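Work Package 3 (structural annotation) set out to generate three-dimensional models for the target panel prioritized at the project kickoff. During this period the team completed the workflow that converts sequence records into discrete structure tokens, so that structures can be stored uniformly alongside our sequence database. As a representative example, we reproduce one entry of 342 residues exactly as it appears in the project archive.
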Amino acid sequence: MKSTRSHATRLGVGVATVATAVMTPLVASATVTPNLSPNVGSAHILWTANQYTSDAQTDPNQLIYHGGTVETKPAVYLVFWGPEWASGFSFPVGSYTYTNRTAETYLRDFFGTVGGSPWAGVQTQYCEGAAIGAVNCNGALGAQFVQNPSSMLKGVWVDPAAVPSPIVTTALVENTTNDPVATEALRASQHFGYSVNATYVILAQPGTVATAYGSVYCAYHSETGHALGARGVRYAFMPYVPEQGAGCGVDSVNQNDAFGHGYYDSYSIVAGHEFAEAVTDPDNYNGTQDGWNDVQTNENGDKCAWTGLQNITLRGQFYAIQPLWSNAAAGGQGACAVSLGS
């Protein structure tokens, strides 16, 4: 390994709780609203945990269909972006050392097994082709629903190209013609091939600064420009999320172990959040949101962000996740859920 870093000070603020590998599915009526806008230009942002307030009593509203598309056959491509992903890095954390390899394995295994799960099945109630303003797809002729295929991970790429640092979101989204993250997403679509149903997940190497409005964020999803009438490339961007500490989910569900539970709780919570939002509300170019979001433009991940965190089991391994908003839950009143039937 060419790079060795220490995270003792960053991780000291985390509060760890032990969780079992299988937990009872949670239905929670609580929703949360970002204190900062979820939209910054073209980016729909997941802020750190301290930037959200519960709105369970004041704003328990449903997601509304705005007439656009969803990803009907969700696919994920992982892009590990930056020379340190290729040359190697390591972080000693207590009794364990986490490396580029353990991070890649954790994310590869999560996205390689989440397809077909009850958690991903929450998405299947949403569609494209419903009536504009609808809160469900019942009776919508010709509607195309989000599916839950068993294999969603379609490719992994370690791209050693340099990452501009710091990456400051407000600078990038105000200049959509010169955005290095969007450019990397386009490179990824050229590398793997383009799919309108794909989310290209761009994972920056450690040390990449990610701020907007002067505040640190955990991730965002967006879409590149539409060339010659074609659809844009749907993508999610994440800095090296464990570097952000407890605010982005480190040690939020599990205690650290060799596989990465605890330390990488942050990755599965944040990556899962962005994946779910990109599937149900993928069009975000220049701030357009025409899929499923509520009257405040919150998406299915936003409404349950940083609440009800728990493990789900995927083919014998467990991962920390957040619930997703389900319009169908609570008898059609809507709630946070980890399965469509919960």
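The chain has one domain: 3-337.
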